[in-house]
Amino acid sequence: MEATRLGTVGIVVENLESSAAINAVLHQYADIIVGRLGIPYRQRGVAIIALAVDGSMENISAMTGKLGQIPHVSVKSAITKN
């Protein structure tokens, strides 16, 4: 069994019509999401989502990869080394 790692995932949503697809991916990986903070920035027409995650590198990478494939979505992560 692979050890779990802690980390943060930052998501910038430039088109709010992508929200349903984002929520579907996040629901699929709900077991590794420790916390979620969503910030609608109405003046700029974007949303920022911050996730705290605890999971295997395989699952974290799979989730960020799927999120990154959604149009108008940018994703970056910072994960513990061990």
Automatic annotation (TrEMBL):
It comes from the Bacteria. Pfam families: TM1266-like. This is Iron-only hydrogenase system regulator.
